[in-house]
Amino acid sequence: MNAVMHPVAPVCAVIPPHILERLLESEDPVVTARARRTLEHDAVHRTRRQIATVCGPTAVPASEVSGTPRCTIYDAAHQKRAPGAEIHIGTAGVLADDTAVRAHAGLTATFDLYSKVYGRRSIDDAGLPLNATVRYGEKYNNAFWDGEQMVFGDGDGGHFRDFTIPLDIVGHELAHGVTQYTANLKYFGQPGALNESVSDVFGSLVKQYALGQTADQADWLIGSGLFTPAVAGKGLRSLAAPGTAYDDPQLGKDPQPAVMDDYVQTSRDNGGVHINSGIPNHAFYHLATTLGGHAWERAGMIWYTTLTSSALAPGAGFTDFAQLTAATARTLYGDGEEVQAVLDAWQNVRITIS
Known about the structure:
The chain is α/β, with parallel strands linked by helices. It has ten helices and nine strands. It has helices spanning 17-23, 29-55, 98-118, 167-181, 189-211, 269-276, 278-291, 298-307, 318-333, 337-348; strands spanning 71-75, 85-87, 130-134, 143-145, 150-152, 221-222, 237-238, 247-248, 252-253. A hairpin with a 4-residue loop joins β4 and β5 (150-152).
Protein backbone atom coordinates (compact mmCIF):
# COMPACT_ATOMS: atom_id res chain seq x y z
CA MET A 1 0.00 0.00 0.00
CA ASN A 2 1.44 3.35 -1.01
CA ALA A 3 1.75 6.10 1.61
CA VAL A 4 -0.50 9.10 1.07
CA MET A 5 1.50 12.33 0.94
CA HIS A 6 0.04 15.54 2.28
CA PRO A 7 1.34 19.07 1.97
CA VAL A 8 3.54 20.18 4.85
CA ALA A 9 2.33 23.02 7.05
CA PRO A 10 5.18 25.36 8.04
CA VAL A 11 5.91 25.71 11.75
CA CYS A 12 5.01 29.36 12.05
CA ALA A 13 3.18 31.83 14.25
CA VAL A 14 2.81 35.52 13.49
CA ILE A 15 4.92 36.72 16.44
CA PRO A 16 8.50 35.72 15.59
CA PRO A 17 10.54 33.98 18.28
CA HIS A 18 13.09 36.81 18.54
CA ILE A 19 10.40 39.08 20.03
CA LEU A 20 9.28 36.51 22.59
CA GLU A 21 12.87 35.62 23.45
CA ARG A 22 13.59 39.31 24.03
CA LEU A 23 10.65 39.46 26.47
CA LEU A 24 12.21 36.57 28.40
CA GLU A 25 14.99 39.00 29.34
CA SER A 26 12.55 41.38 31.04
CA GLU A 27 13.08 42.18 34.72
CA ASP A 28 9.32 41.93 35.20
CA PRO A 29 8.49 38.34 36.20
CA VAL A 30 4.94 38.70 34.84
CA VAL A 31 6.29 39.60 31.39
CA THR A 32 8.79 36.75 31.35
CA ALA A 33 6.15 34.27 32.53
CA ARG A 34 3.80 35.26 29.71
CA ALA A 35 6.56 35.03 27.10
CA ARG A 36 7.63 31.63 28.40
CA ARG A 37 4.04 30.39 28.39
CA THR A 38 3.58 31.47 24.77
CA LEU A 39 6.82 29.79 23.68
CA GLU A 40 5.74 26.61 25.45
CA HIS A 41 2.34 26.74 23.75
CA ASP A 42 4.07 27.21 20.39
CA ALA A 43 6.01 23.99 20.96
CA VAL A 44 2.70 22.15 21.42
CA HIS A 45 1.40 23.63 18.18
CA ARG A 46 4.42 22.31 16.28
CA THR A 47 3.46 18.78 17.31
CA ARG A 48 -0.18 19.33 16.31
CA ARG A 49 0.91 20.59 12.89
CA GLN A 50 3.05 17.52 12.36
CA ILE A 51 0.03 15.32 13.12
CA ALA A 52 -2.16 17.37 10.76
CA THR A 53 0.47 17.00 8.06
CA VAL A 54 0.44 13.19 8.36
CA CYS A 55 -3.34 12.87 8.58
CA GLY A 56 -4.20 15.61 6.14
CA PRO A 57 -7.17 18.00 6.31
CA THR A 58 -10.75 16.86 5.98
CA ALA A 59 -11.75 16.61 2.34
CA VAL A 60 -14.72 18.59 1.10
CA PRO A 61 -17.15 16.79 -1.26
CA ALA A 62 -17.07 18.35 -4.72
CA SER A 63 -20.79 19.06 -4.50
CA GLU A 64 -20.18 21.32 -1.49
CA VAL A 65 -17.46 23.44 -3.08
CA SER A 66 -18.78 26.90 -3.90
CA GLY A 67 -17.85 30.55 -4.06
CA THR A 68 -19.10 31.09 -0.53
CA PRO A 69 -16.77 30.52 2.42
CA ARG A 70 -17.69 27.89 4.99
CA CYS A 71 -16.48 29.35 8.28
CA THR A 72 -16.97 28.19 11.86
CA ILE A 73 -15.66 30.02 14.92
CA TYR A 74 -14.86 28.17 18.14
CA ASP A 75 -14.13 29.38 21.67
CA ALA A 76 -11.28 27.78 23.62
CA ALA A 77 -12.39 29.73 26.73
CA HIS A 78 -8.75 30.40 27.64
CA GLN A 79 -7.92 26.72 27.68
CA LYS A 80 -5.13 25.10 25.70
CA ARG A 81 -7.50 23.31 23.37
CA ALA A 82 -8.68 23.51 19.80
CA PRO A 83 -11.17 23.77 18.33
CA GLY A 84 -13.28 24.33 21.49
CA ALA A 85 -16.99 25.13 21.68
CA GLU A 86 -18.70 26.42 18.54
CA ILE A 87 -19.87 30.03 18.54
CA HIS A 88 -22.99 30.59 16.46
CA ILE A 89 -22.39 33.96 14.85
CA GLY A 90 -25.65 35.83 14.48
CA THR A 91 -27.43 34.15 17.38
CA ALA A 92 -29.09 36.64 19.72
CA GLY A 93 -26.48 38.16 22.00
CA VAL A 94 -23.48 36.67 20.20
CA LEU A 95 -22.96 39.70 17.98
CA ALA A 96 -21.57 41.39 21.09
CA ASP A 97 -18.66 38.94 20.87
CA ASP A 98 -16.37 41.26 18.93
CA THR A 99 -13.51 38.76 18.90
CA ALA A 100 -15.60 36.06 17.19
CA VAL A 101 -17.08 38.54 14.73
CA ARG A 102 -13.61 39.88 13.80
CA ALA A 103 -12.28 36.35 13.31
CA HIS A 104 -15.21 35.48 11.04
CA ALA A 105 -14.76 38.70 9.07
CA GLY A 106 -11.05 38.00 8.63
CA LEU A 107 -11.65 34.51 7.29
CA THR A 108 -14.31 35.80 4.90
CA ALA A 109 -12.14 38.68 3.66
CA THR A 110 -9.27 36.30 2.96
CA PHE A 111 -11.55 33.88 1.10
CA ASP A 112 -12.91 36.76 -0.97
CA LEU A 113 -9.49 37.92 -2.16
CA TYR A 114 -8.48 34.48 -3.37
CA SER A 115 -11.89 33.68 -4.84
CA LYS A 116 -12.81 36.96 -6.52
CA VAL A 117 -9.35 38.06 -7.67
CA TYR A 118 -7.45 34.82 -8.32
CA GLY A 119 -10.29 32.34 -8.85
CA ARG A 120 -9.09 30.15 -6.01
CA ARG A 121 -11.69 28.09 -4.11
CA SER A 122 -10.48 28.53 -0.53
CA ILE A 123 -6.83 28.09 0.40
CA ASP A 124 -6.56 24.54 -0.97
CA ASP A 125 -8.49 25.44 -4.15
CA ALA A 126 -10.96 22.68 -3.25
CA GLY A 127 -13.32 24.42 -0.84
CA LEU A 128 -11.52 23.76 2.46
CA PRO A 129 -13.62 25.18 5.34
CA LEU A 130 -11.97 28.17 6.99
CA ASN A 131 -12.38 27.66 10.72
CA ALA A 132 -10.88 29.44 13.70
CA THR A 133 -10.49 29.10 17.45
CA VAL A 134 -10.45 32.30 19.51
CA ARG A 135 -9.38 32.94 23.11
CA TYR A 136 -6.79 30.19 23.01
CA GLY A 137 -4.82 29.85 26.24
CA GLU A 138 -4.33 32.34 29.03
CA LYS A 139 -3.00 35.66 27.71
CA TYR A 140 -1.49 33.80 24.76
CA ASN A 141 0.59 36.14 22.61
CA ASN A 142 0.28 34.64 19.15
CA ALA A 143 -1.89 33.52 16.25
CA PHE A 144 -1.19 30.72 13.80
CA TRP A 145 -2.44 28.39 11.08
CA ASP A 146 -2.05 24.83 12.39
CA GLY A 147 -2.41 23.06 9.06
CA GLU A 148 -6.20 22.80 9.35
CA GLN A 149 -7.52 25.95 11.04
CA MET A 150 -6.66 29.35 12.53
CA VAL A 151 -5.96 29.83 16.24
CA PHE A 152 -5.96 33.22 17.99
CA GLY A 153 -4.74 34.29 21.40
CA ASP A 154 -6.23 37.39 22.95
CA GLY A 155 -2.89 38.90 23.97
CA ASP A 156 -1.51 39.81 27.36
CA GLY A 157 -2.90 43.34 27.41
CA GLY A 158 0.54 44.65 28.31
CA HIS A 159 2.33 44.43 24.96
CA PHE A 160 -0.21 42.78 22.67
CA ARG A 161 -3.91 43.24 22.10
CA ASP A 162 -6.39 40.69 20.75
CA PHE A 163 -4.85 38.92 17.75
CA THR A 164 -8.09 39.07 15.78
CA ILE A 165 -7.77 42.87 15.53
CA PRO A 166 -5.33 43.19 12.58
CA LEU A 167 -6.98 41.83 9.43
CA ASP A 168 -3.58 41.27 7.83
CA ILE A 169 -2.64 38.76 10.54
CA VAL A 170 -5.52 36.52 9.42
CA GLY A 171 -4.46 36.97 5.80
CA HIS A 172 -0.82 36.28 6.66
CA GLU A 173 -1.50 33.01 8.45
CA LEU A 174 -3.98 31.68 5.89
CA ALA A 175 -1.44 32.44 3.15
CA HIS A 176 0.77 29.83 4.82
CA GLY A 177 -2.03 27.44 4.00
CA VAL A 178 -1.98 28.49 0.34
CA THR A 179 1.79 27.96 0.25
CA GLN A 180 1.26 24.60 1.99
CA TYR A 181 -0.99 23.49 -0.88
CA THR A 182 1.09 24.95 -3.73
CA ALA A 183 4.86 25.54 -3.71
CA ASN A 184 5.23 24.01 -0.23
CA LEU A 185 8.36 26.11 0.35
CA LYS A 186 10.78 24.64 2.86
CA TYR A 187 10.75 26.44 6.18
CA PHE A 188 14.44 27.21 6.55
CA GLY A 189 16.85 29.80 5.16
CA GLN A 190 15.87 31.60 1.96
CA PRO A 191 12.95 29.28 1.06
CA GLY A 192 11.62 29.83 4.58
CA ALA A 193 12.04 33.60 4.30
CA LEU A 194 10.17 33.45 0.98
CA ASN A 195 7.45 31.46 2.73
CA GLU A 196 7.13 34.21 5.35
CA SER A 197 7.33 36.97 2.75
CA VAL A 198 4.55 35.47 0.64
CA SER A 199 2.38 35.45 3.76
CA ASP A 200 3.21 39.08 4.50
CA VAL A 201 2.46 40.09 0.91
CA PHE A 202 -0.92 38.38 0.77
CA GLY A 203 -1.73 39.40 4.33
CA SER A 204 -1.29 43.00 3.25
CA LEU A 205 -3.28 42.41 0.05
CA VAL A 206 -6.19 40.93 2.01
CA LYS A 207 -6.38 44.13 4.04
CA GLN A 208 -5.97 46.39 1.00
CA TYR A 209 -8.66 44.49 -0.92
CA ALA A 210 -11.10 44.62 2.00
CA LEU A 211 -10.52 48.37 2.40
CA GLY A 212 -10.48 49.11 -1.33
CA GLN A 213 -7.07 50.78 -1.05
CA THR A 214 -4.63 51.56 -3.83
CA ALA A 215 -0.93 50.85 -3.37
CA ASP A 216 -0.19 54.44 -2.39
CA GLN A 217 -3.03 54.47 0.18
CA ALA A 218 -1.96 51.28 1.98
CA ASP A 219 0.10 51.36 5.19
CA TRP A 220 2.10 48.26 4.12
CA LEU A 221 2.31 47.13 7.74
CA ILE A 222 1.75 43.67 9.19
CA GLY A 223 0.11 43.77 12.61
CA SER A 224 -0.91 47.41 12.76
CA GLY A 225 -3.12 47.84 15.84
CA LEU A 226 -1.72 44.76 17.59
CA PHE A 227 0.61 46.59 19.98
CA THR A 228 -0.79 48.29 23.06
CA PRO A 229 0.02 52.00 23.61
CA ALA A 230 2.84 50.88 25.92
CA VAL A 231 4.88 49.63 22.95
CA ALA A 232 6.95 51.95 20.77
CA GLY A 233 5.99 50.51 17.41
CA LYS A 234 3.50 50.71 14.57
CA GLY A 235 3.40 47.03 13.63
CA LEU A 236 5.33 43.76 13.49
CA ARG A 237 6.84 44.35 10.06
CA SER A 238 6.89 47.02 7.36
CA LEU A 239 7.05 46.11 3.69
CA ALA A 240 7.65 49.76 2.80
CA ALA A 241 10.58 50.19 5.20
CA PRO A 242 11.85 46.93 6.69
CA GLY A 243 13.66 47.49 9.97
CA THR A 244 11.45 50.40 11.09
CA ALA A 245 8.27 48.71 12.36
CA TYR A 246 9.18 48.98 16.04
CA ASP A 247 11.97 50.14 18.32
CA ASP A 248 10.99 49.39 21.90
CA PRO A 249 13.01 49.02 25.12
CA GLN A 250 11.48 45.61 25.85
CA LEU A 251 10.77 44.22 22.38
CA GLY A 252 14.02 45.50 20.89
CA LYS A 253 14.43 46.97 17.41
CA ASP A 254 12.94 45.55 14.24
CA PRO A 255 15.84 43.49 12.77
CA GLN A 256 14.60 43.13 9.19
CA PRO A 257 16.97 44.06 6.35
CA ALA A 258 15.63 45.77 3.23
CA VAL A 259 18.41 44.76 0.82
CA MET A 260 20.46 41.65 0.11
CA ASP A 261 23.67 43.35 1.25
CA ASP A 262 22.31 43.18 4.81
CA TYR A 263 21.10 39.56 4.72
CA VAL A 264 21.35 38.10 8.24
CA GLN A 265 23.22 34.83 8.59
CA THR A 266 21.87 33.06 11.67
CA SER A 267 20.94 29.60 12.89
CA ARG A 268 18.07 30.96 14.98
CA ASP A 269 14.47 31.18 13.81
CA ASN A 270 15.03 28.49 11.16
CA GLY A 271 17.79 30.54 9.58
CA GLY A 272 16.17 33.93 10.13
CA VAL A 273 12.95 33.32 8.21
CA HIS A 274 11.09 36.16 9.96
CA ILE A 275 14.05 38.50 9.55
CA ASN A 276 15.29 38.06 5.97
CA SER A 277 11.72 38.04 4.64
CA GLY A 278 12.09 41.81 4.67
CA ILE A 279 14.10 41.63 1.44
CA PRO A 280 11.47 40.02 -0.85
CA ASN A 281 8.80 42.01 1.04
CA HIS A 282 10.52 45.22 0.00
CA ALA A 283 10.81 44.02 -3.60
CA PHE A 284 7.06 43.47 -3.76
CA TYR A 285 6.39 46.89 -2.24
CA HIS A 286 8.52 48.52 -4.94
CA LEU A 287 6.77 46.56 -7.68
CA ALA A 288 3.30 47.42 -6.39
CA THR A 289 3.98 51.12 -5.91
CA THR A 290 5.73 51.39 -9.28
CA LEU A 291 2.81 49.82 -11.12
CA GLY A 292 0.32 51.77 -9.00
CA GLY A 293 -3.40 51.18 -8.74
CA HIS A 294 -4.60 48.20 -6.76
CA ALA A 295 -1.67 46.04 -5.67
CA TRP A 296 -3.71 42.84 -5.80
CA GLU A 297 -4.16 43.23 -9.53
CA ARG A 298 -0.94 43.19 -11.58
CA ALA A 299 1.66 42.93 -8.80
CA GLY A 300 -0.42 40.46 -6.80
CA MET A 301 -1.24 38.40 -9.88
CA ILE A 302 2.46 38.06 -10.71
CA TRP A 303 3.24 36.86 -7.17
CA TYR A 304 0.21 34.54 -6.98
CA THR A 305 0.88 32.96 -10.38
CA THR A 306 4.52 32.42 -9.46
CA LEU A 307 3.61 30.86 -6.11
CA THR A 308 1.13 28.45 -7.69
CA SER A 309 3.36 27.57 -10.62
CA SER A 310 4.87 24.09 -10.74
CA ALA A 311 8.16 25.79 -11.68
CA LEU A 312 8.64 27.09 -8.12
CA ALA A 313 10.57 24.40 -6.24
CA PRO A 314 10.21 23.88 -2.47
CA GLY A 315 13.89 24.79 -2.03
CA ALA A 316 13.78 27.99 -4.10
CA GLY A 317 15.99 30.87 -3.01
CA PHE A 318 15.50 34.60 -3.54
CA THR A 319 17.14 34.65 -6.97
CA ASP A 320 15.12 31.64 -8.13
CA PHE A 321 11.90 33.35 -7.07
CA ALA A 322 12.96 36.65 -8.61
CA GLN A 323 13.70 35.04 -11.98
CA LEU A 324 10.36 33.26 -11.96
CA THR A 325 8.46 36.48 -11.18
CA ALA A 326 10.07 38.12 -14.21
CA ALA A 327 9.18 35.13 -16.40
CA THR A 328 5.63 35.18 -15.02
CA ALA A 329 5.26 38.90 -15.72
CA ARG A 330 6.38 38.33 -19.30
CA THR A 331 3.92 35.45 -19.75
CA LEU A 332 1.02 37.41 -18.28
CA TYR A 333 1.69 40.85 -19.75
CA GLY A 334 4.29 40.56 -22.50
CA ASP A 335 7.47 42.65 -22.69
CA GLY A 336 5.98 45.79 -21.22
CA GLU A 337 6.19 47.92 -18.10
CA GLU A 338 5.32 45.01 -15.82
CA VAL A 339 8.50 43.07 -16.68
CA GLN A 340 10.68 46.15 -16.28
CA ALA A 341 8.99 46.97 -12.97
CA VAL A 342 9.76 43.45 -11.70
CA LEU A 343 13.40 43.73 -12.75
CA ASP A 344 13.71 47.14 -11.11
CA ALA A 345 12.03 45.93 -7.92
CA TRP A 346 14.55 43.15 -7.43
CA GLN A 347 17.44 45.39 -8.42
CA ASN A 348 16.28 47.81 -5.73
CA VAL A 349 16.90 45.14 -3.09
CA ARG A 350 20.26 44.25 -4.71
CA ILE A 351 19.12 41.09 -6.47
CA THR A 352 20.03 41.19 -10.17
CA ILE A 353 18.19 39.05 -12.71
CA SER A 354 18.03 39.13 -16.49
